[in-house]
Amino acid sequence: MNPSIEREGFSERLQQALRNAEYSPDSPTQLAREFNIRFEGRPITVHAARKWLVGEAIPTQEKLRTLAQWLGVPAEWLRFGGVSTPGGEPPAALAKFESSDVKLIADLQRLDTHHQALAREFIRMLVRMNRSK
After folding, report:
1. What is the tens place of the pLDDT at every residue in 116-129?
2. Domain membership flag for residue 8
3. Cβ distance 73 to 105 under 8 Å?
4. pLDDT, position 101
5. In this structure, how many other beta carbons lie within 10 angstroms of the beta carbon of residue 63?
6. Of 79, 80, 36, nearest to 59 (Cα)?
C-alpha cells in the first residue's frame, strides 16, 4: 500500500476516534497533552501530534498502543483500518465504549497499581451484586 495513503487513513481514523471520545480532532496541542499524560515513554511534541493529525506520520507501535488504549479502539483498527460503517465510524464491535467509559478507563490507568486493583475489585463486586438482583 502507498505510504501516503496509509498515513492519510491513519489520520482519518485517529480524528474519528478523537471525536468519538469527545476530544477535538483539530488540536495538536490537546492531543499531545492528553497523550503525554498516558504515555510512559518520552513525551511527544505538538509538532509530532500535528503530523499524526494531518497524515504526515504514523506513530510507533508503542505510541499507537497508548493512543488506542486511551481512545478505546483496537490498535489494529487505528493503524490499519478495516471494516467500517458508511459514516466512517468503526463498527459497533470496535466502538463498544461510550466516551464517558473511555474517560473512566483513562482515569483508572492514572491510578497506581494498588488503587487500580481496588477499583477493579469494587467493579467486580458491583457486577456480582447486580447479577444477584
Report:
1. 889 888 887 887 88
2. yes
3. no
4. 65
5. 17
6. 79
Residue 49 lies in a domain: yes
Distance of alpha carbon 52 from alpha carbon 128, whole angstroms:
42
Q: Is the pTM of this model over 0.85?
A: no
In angstroms and rounded to an integer, the radius of gyration of the C-alpha atoms of the chain is: 16
Identify the DSSP state of 40. -
Number of independent structural domains in the chain: 1
d(CA 11, CA 76): 14
Nearest partner of 73 among 56, 51, 55, 88, judged by Cα: 88
- 64-114 pLDDT, tens digit each: 999 999 999 999 999 998 754 334 554 444 444 555 666 677 777 778 889
User: Is residue 55 over pLDDT 80?
Assistant: yes
Domain extent, residue 79, equals 3-96
Length of the chain: 133
The three three-digit cell numbers of residue 104, written as one number: 473512566
Sole residue written with cell 509538532: 47
Q: How many CA atoms lie within 13 A of 72 on its CB side?
A: 26
